[in-house]
User: What shape does this take?
Amino acid sequence: MPELPEVETVRRTLIELVAGKRIQAVTVNLPRIIQRPAEPEQFAGALAGQQIETIERRGKFLRIILDGLVLVSHLRMEGRYGVFGSDEPVEKHTHVIFHFDDGTELRYKDVRQFGTMHLFERGRELELPPLNKLGIEPLEESFTLEALRGKLAKRTTKLKPLLLNQEYIVGLGNIYVDEALFQARIHPERTPDTLKPAEWKKLYEAIRVTLARAVEAGGSSIKSYVNGQGEMGMFQHELLVYGRKGDPCPSCARPIEKFTVGGRGTHICGKCQPIVKAKSTAVK
Assistant: This one.
């Protein structure tokens, strides 16, 4: 699933490709992609004549800002956008096509068919699902060390599931949680109550630095991810632990381990990220 760096890269490339274009018509080939309004005819009718002003991001969601509407799009596992000429062949698994009045088309392709699109009146999208319960953005000024601790410090769940929970911090997925925890030298099964102040600082800095570097590299192309211009990301060449089971740790040369935490495949170095149990406060 595309995470914050990949969605941010798609956002930036799509701005270059479609900002200022006016939608003439919309073709919906797979109705279940459209969540709001549920009827594809209403969706297409509302978008006809709308001009794309810009594209923003909230967590892993794209916010396509139009004249008076906002289209909220989630790519899920393998969704992707591309701009084509109207005379170019339509590829298999192309589920939604936005036809522009200049003869070009923005096409949404999704092999797994898990992507979603919600259409809102402008301003309402932040008040309603799926955006209304999202947490803080890790690359904005609101994401501070104090904010991170405020969201997580009182939780008793293992760290990795907490960091993956979009109601606390948005945009983090399996790749960048593994990478940030390794950079901070923190085991993913530790709980917030075991973290010392210095470790909170390391985790905060690791999240920001890892995501910023990934955005700069255009994201990670692990499976099928490409940006709006069809280009692969390059950060997969900089990954230190994710997807490297059995490879030597870049810090100590011990083989990278893979196991499951909260139902998700997880990569660590057992030496650099030791598990630490909370001290018992029970009366003996």
User: Anything to note?
Assistant: Residues 197-216 form the longest helix (20 residues).
